[in-house]
Amino acid sequence: MTNYKQVGNLKVAPVLYQFINEEALPGSGLSTENFWSDFEALVTELTPVNKRLLEKRDQLQAQINAWHQENPDGDFSEYKSFLTRIGYLEDKTEDFLISTEGVDSEIAYQAGPQLVVPVNNARYAINAANARWGSLYDALYGTDAISEENGASRTNSYNPIRGEKVIAFAKNFLDAVVPLVQSSHAEVVQYSLENGKLVAQLNDGSLTELQEEEKFVGYQGEEESPDALAEASARCQHGRPSS
Is the pTM higher than 0.85? Predict the structure, then answer.
């Protein structure tokens, strides 16, 4: 691409320039002039830093390649010592804490896709977004969050004893993070949607809703009988209970 837009000292692809000015910035409170001038300042400041980091990476890779060529059957402890000596590995430090400030709530508190794909490739973007969601039941069944005591071992085929423990654990978890107005998720025989709200039918025939209806964020299947529900606090899907 040679038809770049000259913006200050930057050369910007027209499609990017148009997207930033017409779609990204409106409503943000930031003017196009301020954005591009600040962006240019960042590029000017960080380009030399990034260049040095890339050069350092190339140096390390060249040293590592040379070591493997010279030591085709090298000992692991020798290799680790070599990596530490050239600065690829750092010595173990004492435990420490890191905190951040000024992080947007969309990053700090809300579940969402972490897209490291080309945004103009719809299939890649959708796959990355869907990869952020998973089944609560599947996650519990396959991990040590559920003990294998009393016949609840993980086997090659489905273990109904473990399955019951998974369901009980999941219901208690849902009661803690997305409680109902009345009763427990363990008493629910059917979920459905009415006017965009999640409604739960209990085993006595009565209906109830979530205490915090905004925590319901999506579903799969039909409104009358969804196959899966997505809730913000749980940050995952859980399957429909059988009646």
Answer: no
